[in-house]
Amino acid sequence: MTLCAMNDGAVSYFHIKYKKEGVILKIYVLDNFVSSGIEFAAGHAEVVRWDDPRVKNWHEDADGLMVRSKLLTAEDFAKAKKLRVVAKQGVGVNTIDLAAAKAHGVIVCNTPAVNSESVAEMALALALAVTRRVAELDRRIRSGEVVQRANVLGMETWEKTVGVIGMGNIGSRIARKYHFAFNTKLIAYDPYAPAGSWPDIPHRRVASLDELLPLVDLLTIHVPLTPETRHLIGRRELALMKKTAILVNVSRGDVVDEEALYDVLKSGHLFGAGLDVFKTEPPTTDNPLVGLPNVVSTPHAGGGTVENQEKSSLITAQQLIHVLNGGEPMSRVA
Question: Which of 75, 155, 266, 313 is the most exposed place for a label (fewest CB within 10 A)?
């Protein structure tokens, strides 16, 4: 199989060749995938979908799994004696016990960069919805209120200071959008990127959150959930931010301490927040954050575009078949 890189860092699915083998592979698809990936996998293996009653028995004979948000535990890997590969659609793998997978010789691969554009667009959409109070005004009009515009003024983004935590595929893409669309002053925090990264993006780079947070008018977060990033933004960090600042999180819910964020927003210390991710998903009214008028909430829908889902589903299936046939993963995480 030949994988050709695309301009956006994804994988070309137009120039791929597979070696044929006589073994019939069995793939279980544990989450709802759009048809592109299912159809491709079915052309190379026996496929059992998430809506097939047989799916509950995947531990017995699965050679490979396609997953999106399905929780895979150490017990799962211990029971799945034939399992060789797990292909995860998307980047985050916090729902998969990677140590257990490695211990049982199971390869886990994901699809980084494929959803970068869709998530970056969601981050920008949330930011604008908060700054211009779009969702709040919509709710008030729908409730029958006659809104007095002078009492619900928004904030402009033009030439404001934007702080980006995590300048990877998504963070660097959103940074470019802010620069070209709004002529913002960009401040980047990414302790893992080498010196000289992002030469095409005018920015200032800082070495600590303490240096970043007091300066920004808008904070946008793009990091994976790890022990190091859990509650990366907590009560102390939020207190460092401007009273008029806005926080946008499209990474993982637990990167931000939700209880602390609620208290800060409730007190009026921040202007608002745009949240696509939560500690418990999907978010409901049980989460007090979604009841605040200055919070815009979406149900982890950053990758939820027609274009991204078709591409991601297909690439997940292609990578799974490739690795099951002895090829190297495009992106191996365990």
Answer: 75
- 329, two tokens: 């993963």
Q: Which residues form the catalytic set?
A: 252, 281, 300
Domain 116-297 has CATH 3.40.605.10: no
Q: Which two tokens stand for residue 237?
A: 């960090």
Q: Is 127 helix (H, G, I), strand (E, B) or coil?
A: helix
CATH of 4-114+307-324, one of 2.60.120.10, 3.40.50.720, 3.20.20.70, 1.10.230.10: 3.40.50.720
Length of the chain measured in residues = 334
Question: What's the pTM?
Answer: 0.86
For 111-158, the pLDDT digits (tens) are 988 999 999 999 999 999 999 999 999 999 999 999 999 999 999 999
For the chain, where do the domains classified as CATH 3.40.50.720 start and end?
Answer: 4-114+307-324, 116-297
Instruction: Give φ, ψ of 65 to 5 degrees.
Output: -125, 145
Gap between the Cα atoms of 211 and 215, Å rounded: 8
Cα–Cα distance, 272 to 154 (Å, whole number) = 10
Question: What is the per-residue pLDDT across 189-234, written as a single tens digit (0 to 9) for each?
Answer: 999 999 999 999 999 999 999 999 999 999 999 999 999 999 999 9
Give pLDDT tens digits for 174-184: 999 999 999 99
Amino acid at position 74, single letter: A
